Amino acid sequence: MTQAPLNLLTSPDGAVCVPLTTLTPLRLTGADRLDFLHGQVSGEVKGLQVGQMSHALLLNVKGHALALLRVYRRQDDLFAAVEDGGGALVKAELQAHIVFDQVTIEDLSDTLRAFTLQGRGVREVLKRALGSNLPADGHFVEVPFADAKVLLAPVRRSSATGVDLHVLSRDAEALQTALLMAGAQLAGDDWLTLTRITAGLPSAAGEGGEGVLPQECGLAYAVSYRKGCYLGQEIMARLEARGNVRRRLLGVKLNGQPDDKALRHQGKEVGRLGSFARHPELGWIGLAVVRLELSPGAELTAGGTQATLAPLPFS
Question: Domain containing 304: what range?
Fold first, then answer.
């Protein structure tokens, strides 16, 4: 797949269309769906109105960020889009906690596809392709397409405006064609990873995971401190009260492709490299969770690769 140039993000009419190949769509139905999911993830669910969305994390008992999902409240169900191939884990964990709850969880991977549009020209592409405006932050809309609908939701995956589009699999090719004819340019996963890193936007799969708290890896925006009990909630409340994390998210500039994700300073491991990619101007760059006392400019190693910490976003 031809890679779109990065400057399309800053061009006034630039828009890039990327299929979201690692996103898993889940559907929750049943009378207890709101209370159930609200008690399992870190973000707001029960307080959502129809047409509103939230960001949430699946945490473990230690508060580690295992998976990121976006929750959409519709009239008759909850739609949850799980990032970075985490759908099987999220579904299994949710399923394991159903006792007497009236809730059913379905994986819709066979029937739905998703795209993202990123760039300053996203609004114009949406108008030309679908006759729709970009929804406000925290909201989504479903607009007619073919003989069904497309769900549109603002999601930032780059330094520019962004929107995710969820569509029936049978209509996915037609939607992609409509977006390209409306002025978008097609790109793939590698382009999206690079733009996300450049903007300093972490992922649960890349920068989170076992051993990493949301507050350490830039995912605290997906934590609500106003809701009741859920797995990992005690740790989140303690961190809100004391604020004593030991690590933070920073950028990394590398002098080549890294051969190890352990970052060391003077022989001592001081952090972990997450996502990384080759930038056409900056060379190899990445995101890392490192000890709090380390600052941009610190010289580290990633195996045999030299690494320098950098502020985010990359300029």
Answer: 246-315
